[in-house]
Design goal:
The chain is globular, with a radius of gyration of 19 Å. The chain has one domain: 3-Layer(aba) Sandwich (Rossmann fold). Strand 3, helix 2 and strand 4 form a beta-alpha-beta unit. It is built from 14 helices and eight strands. By secondary structure, the protein is an alpha/beta fold. It has an eight-stranded mixed β-sheet, with helices on both faces.
Length: 323
């Protein structure tokens, strides 16, 4: 029964949707996709870990057909965007990607001309979206986080470590990730059946026959500098300041004077960020709204796109009529 539901909804779109374009951010090449009428309100889709703009294959054209100008960006280190950072940027973390996104909103989406943007992010993309909101709220109309990572630390940690201890930790993290055979691991996973096992953890229904999905993930992973980008991200995310972590960002957003509405969409069968954490987050922050999709995992926008798209469009319609 579950497989029938999955097959009816899955693989309805192409990863080559819209128009493929490139843009330069801080001398780094960035890939993005765009579709829809230029005069329509802008939506920016932000992918999760290991994915790219291609992962919105089942959503982008639907939103465009409903009257939106839809962009999807490949974050630095992912998809077709730059992976060989060299000396341009040593480490990758959500604050860096938020800065990338802000420049994208200013230069490509042109929020000043086209109006505030709707941000829709999957996991890491959702963290990037709320980080952007905490820094530049005037650019954003609403955020849809599907789902939001880092709720495991629901409350910000109140104590702090001495600076020498943080320096030691930072040094050890760098040593570990430089010694760890990341390149060999990526090659092993992306070129064997392990990729199906790895991807399945993010889906509730079977993805064993979804060759398109495997291609979306493995092609960028096989690029020559993919391991460098992954190492930069592992170090960057591990050594972030507390202020760059989800709970602190949510607290900052909570106190914004003109806070845009935020909708969380969660897969009830999410194994990576279980639904009980979403409920704890909502209890702590009732100003956040939550919608749950049954029989969906972590990549719910791709797994049950019909359900996901309906929730998004209903949210945006209600947002429009409420003002």
């Amino acid at each position: 029964m579950q497989s029938n539901i999955f097959n009816k909804e899955h693989l309805i779109g192409s990863p080559d949707w819209g128009e493929s374009k490139y843009w330069t951010y801080n001398d780094l090449r960035v890939h993005f996709r765009v579709t829809g009428n230029e005069s329509n309100p802008p939506i920016v889709l932000i992918h999760g870990f290991g994915a790219s703009s291609d992962h919105w294959r089942n959503n982008a054209e639907i939103f465009a057909s409903e009257g939106f100008r839809v962009f999807a960006i490949d974050l630095i280190g992912f998809g077709k965007s730059e992976q060989n950072l060299q000396s341009k940027k040593k480490y990758l973390e959500n604050q860096f990607w938020a800065n990338q996104l802000v420049s994208f909103l200013d230069e490509i989406v042109d929020v000043e001309k086209n109006g505030k943007v709707i941000l829709i992010g999957n996991s890491l993309g959702a963290l990037t979206a709320i980080t952007t909101l905490s820094e530049r709220p005037e650019l954003i109309k609403t955020i849809i986080a599907a789902p939001l990572p880092e709720p495991v630390f629901i409350n910000p940690i109140k104590f702090s470590f001495p600076s020498w201890m943080l320096k030691v930790k930072s040094f050890l993290v760098k040593i570990v990730f430089h010694l760890f055979p990341i390149k060999s691991l990526i090659n092993l996973i992306s070129s064997t059946k392990l990729i199906t096992f790895a991807l399945q953890s993010a889906y509730f229904n079977s993805i064993s026959n979804d060759t398109q999905l495997k291609r979306i993930v493995t092609v960028p992973a096989r690029r020559i500098n993919a391991y460098k980008a992954l190492r930069a991200m592992c170090i960057g995310m591990s050594n972030r300041q507390d202020s760059a972590k989800g709970p602190y960002i949510i607290e900052k957003i909570k106190n914004l004077p003109n806070r845009p509405p935020i909708l969380l969409i969660w897969g009830k069968e999410d194994k990576l960020i279980p639904i009980f954490l979403a409920k704890k987050l909502i209890k702590l922050h009732p100003w956040l709204k939550l919608s749950v999709i049954n029989e969906a995992g972590h990549c719910l926008h791709d797994e049950l796109p019909k359900h996901f798209n309906q929730i998004v469009l209903k949210w945006l319609k209600n947002l429009k009529t409420s003002k």
